[in-house]
Amino acid sequence: xxxxxxxxxxxxxxxxxxxxxxxxxxxxxxxxxxxxxxxxxxxxxxxxxxxxxxxxxxxxxxxxxxxxxxxxxxxxxxxxxxxxxxxxxxxxxxxxxxxxxxxxxxxxxxxxxxxxxxxxxxxxxxxxxxxxxxxxxxxxxxxxxxxxxxxxxxxxxxxxxxxxxxxxxxxxxxxxxxxxxxxxxxxxxxxxxxxxxxxxxxxxxxxxxxxxxxxxxxxxxxxxxxxxxxxxxxxxxxxxxxxxxxxxxxxxxxxxxxxxxxxxxxxxxxxxxxxxxxxxxxxxxxxxxxxxxxxxxxxxxxxxxxxxxxxxxxxxxxxxxxxxxxxxxxxxxxxxxxxxxxxxxxxxxxxxxxxxxxxxxxxxxxxxxxxxxxx
Length: 375
Ligand SMILES: [Zn+2]
Known about the structure:
Function: Component of a retrotranslocation channel required for peroxisome organization by mediating export of the PEX5 receptor from peroxisomes to the cytosol, thereby promoting PEX5 recycling.
Structural class: mainly alpha
Helix content: 55-70%
Domain Pex N-terminal: 28-289
Order of helices and strands: HHHHHEHHHHHEHHHHEEHE
Number of strands: 5
Oligomer: single chain
Largest sheet: 3 strands, antiparallel
Strand content: under 5%
Bound molecules: zinc ion
Membrane topology: Multi-pass membrane protein
Low-confidence stretches: 1-5, 143-150, 238-245
Number of helices: 15
Protein name: Peroxisome assembly protein 12
Mean pLDDT: 79
Strand order of the largest sheet: 4-3-5
Radius of gyration: 32 Å
GO molecular function: ubiquitin-protein transferase activity; zinc ion binding
């Protein structure tokens, strides 16, 4: 029954500790989704609080890497697997020691971190660099007609003959750039191909490693057994060792409290990060759906209330069509941000003198004056 054998291979086979390819793929998918999900949540809030969050958005990848370094280190050290591996009930074990004492060494943790956090960051930076160096979408659409930034640079280098050493350096840089442009797509292809090959080999039990990185690290990913969970329960929360420390000074007590809150927070991520993915998926659906458009078609909101005239300001004329400054019909009507309209010469002179709207006394600059084209 080849079909049945194939299916049982897909589902993990006789080795109950070996996660199925489905679990591995789901786990990789989840870890790929975390970054865009968090970026989306940040960008939603950046619109609301631009002062604090726009900068965070510009450095999002680095910030994300820094946060994930902390998170992954916590999970690798306390649960023996990356955050998403632990979420799917898996852990990392040293190859060849699948029996009892199979936990990772400190070195394994750091090397795992390099592949879990460092590699994606470097890859994403290189992708961006390639996008920029190759001229991005514009170059692909316009083909040869689109002069590349670095080709223009090459011309300028050729013209400048003043400093030979500087010129050599520039030529070298350009050559590196050209090599990068030429070979990066191939490297990228190999990267994705290697992942694919390992998936297939893993599925057919040709290898115990589900990714080339784990092969380099010499680590297998295994399902957590009932014994693992029991051991984890017996150990209690990761903070128990800290809590049990003899209570000496107030300083130590505070330090323990901070550590406990921090560790508690990292454990809480098990709930929070998946929730952020659901939030992201929900927002994606929301913006695509008709539902969202229907709600946007609701009536135009009422205009904001007009700014009240200031008691020390110029009084509003009885006839609203007159200019409040010269009290004559407006010539060349112009508006200030407060919403009141005057003759252009009157308001220009007034703002030049006082820097304020004559009626509300709200601050206004000459650049704020807007000409009205009513006919
Ligand atoms: Zn006037």
